[in-house]
Amino acid sequence: MTALLDRVQQLATEARTGLPALARTSSAERDRLLRGIVHQLKIHADEIWSANLKDLARAEAEGLAKPLIDRLNLGAGRLRALAEGVEQVAALPDPLGQIVTGWTRPNGLAIEQVRVPLGLVGFIYEARPNVTIEAASLCLKSGNGILLRGGSAALETNRGLVRALQGALVGQGLPASLVSFVDDPSRDSVEAMLGLTGLLDVVIPRGGEGLIRTVVEKARVPVIETGVGNCHVYVDASADPDMATAIVLNAKTQRPSVCNAAETLLVHRDLLETWLPGALEALDLKGCEIRGDAETCRLFSRAVPASEADWDTEFLDLVLAVKVVDSLDDALDHIRLHGSRHSEAIVTRDLESSERFLHEVDAAVVYVNASTRFTDGGEFGFGAEVGISTQKLHARGPMGLKELTTTQYRVRGKGQVRG
Amino acid sequence: MTALLDRVQQLATEARTGLPALARTSSAERDRLLRGIVHQLKIHADEIWSANLKDLARAEAEGLAKPLIDRLNLGAGRLRALAEGVEQVAALPDPLGQIVTGWTRPNGLAIEQVRVPLGLVGFIYEARPNVTIEAASLCLKSGNGILLRGGSAALETNRGLVRALQGALVGQGLPASLVSFVDDPSRDSVEAMLGLTGLLDVVIPRGGEGLIRTVVEKARVPVIETGVGNCHVYVDASADPDMATAIVLNAKTQRPSVCNAAETLLVHRDLLETWLPGALEALDLKGCEIRGDAETCRLFSRAVPASEADWDTEFLDLVLAVKVVDSLDDALDHIRLHGSRHSEAIVTRDLESSERFLHEVDAAVVYVNASTRFTDGGEFGFGAEVGISTQKLHARGPMGLKELTTTQYRVRGKGQVRG
To answer: Which domains does chain A have, with CATH numbers?
Structure first.
């Protein structure tokens, strides 16, 4: 562990030495760098694919689950799509140098708050090699160095991708260390990164609940928590029934494996006989398992009784917990107790219910009459997504390029001193 | 420790149950609450003073240092000044409900980013009882509950102040638990607070380096780091000599015990004979000890040789480290290596030096031709100060009311689902 610690510390230290050179680049130069990455991905495509095949072969030999193997795969046009994503990031407006606000004090001091890079960003992620390219291009675009630590399943692929990234840096006369890679996918390397106080300006974990929990427990560096979503749809007594069905179906079944999918349906008692049976039929037709409270189970024979744990579970699967509530207040209480502060939706035609839900639910994104599935950088129009923050400091909700920056106050005087 | 943990957890849980009631108050109601605090401080003044006398007597019996005893003292008009401070916070504009930005997506979804409270804020501080009132009034104004944990020296005083704060809450029909007090000034109570994952939305430590380090090491809740300042003044070859002397004297001697005071002077070699001797004389006249590099010591007989550690030390006293540098680049390198990213100043008449310093120094506040002492919520015009953040996430530099808030996305649709 000590040798590993030293190595990771050394990597971060070297990455930091490259930051001043990156800070001196213009916006146009950083965009050229990103186009250099696109070029490198093209010329190294064969090498990356052969590395990817090794990872895929090992994954199959080790009997990894099919969806995980699919996420690993960079074949079938996915590498090209990844390169196109980098082109799109290059085309986004530069967040750096933006003057957020500015004013002059009575004593003549001119104060400007300017957007600047965070510095060195640590990314800890699991099997998806596309994160290597996406995270690096977003960080370089916003003037940050990056220390990457990906999962073991994608190790060979990540090595190839990092060579392409570093090739682009060198091609633009920048230090290769601005993209550094912890070539050790063990748990220990995660812990080593989390202890780099003063060397990493922030760590962003992308992965399942286990990874996120480790990061929150062990980190001695600032962290942006992402991802876990136990999202609810509450169907109010006044809801348009067809709209409610469409939103519930979409929130649960359009892509159940992601964090902004709904996990629990809360239904007002007034809809128990009129709307709920049809909605449950429609969910059942889509292959969705229903875990209901006592009343739901009485109403719908194919429902299984929900356990206490189900109200707190992010199923990430075609499973929906269903509960009948007596009022908006009951729904708000349930969400307060079980929600993960990610995305929450109400379907209603009542203005007061709508306003109360918007103002009283404590979550990153709150919806009236829309699916929770819209919590996404692309759907918000950010052009890129760094992740979805479920914490309250710095960034909350979908994060774009701006969230990879901080600000600095620049103060210009004429010799002012404090009295 | 387990009993303490349970108690602190219980306090935080109770404080959270009050949050929905606070969230429903209007801006005018919260201002009335703050005026209620002013009233309570007046009617309970005798009780608070007698508690304060007990703390002062114990502090003298235990031989506490004079400046610490002075900070404890709420006599001699200080309680009145504290109440006036609360009046001023009440008069500040409300940060809540501000629409930071908003837009409509092509599919018709209307997205608003709205400023909302953080939730429950933990304040960990040392001997200064005024923090109890200042932190609580800032938190309540911005819709947050607060869990306070002050130092042992001010225990009796804090109990009295908290009774006044809770009296004001009850007087406005709000739960007293919105201001909760950990009535245990041990180290263990700090650790107990730092483990309240999911119960505290943020912890703000205010105190010396030791406290800040404990918080960074042990926290499993989000933290805003405040305070440590190893600030530099760099006097460029082109500096106006009188302006340089005035700024260095002010930055070092006007109030040496605070974080925005300068600790190291960097001087361009060209000024070695022309400016430096006079500046050192002036500092010496103010009683400032000079710890110089070899050249400074050769030049000024009352200088003592600086040790390696001196370049990294926040003296918080009339002590200044002095180093001669060959160029702006040397100064930038020294600051990169030794600065604490708090406040850094250059004195110069050269445009390129000014621009390079502003763009290349990584600190919360960077000054051209002004004293570092202006890094302060009051001096920035914020009307209140929560602390000075030296981290890059969420808030950087002086923090006002806005930094005690987060944002929430509110999305209004007409039945939109994701395709």
So the answer is: 2-225+395-412 (3.40.605.10), 231-378 (3.40.309.10)
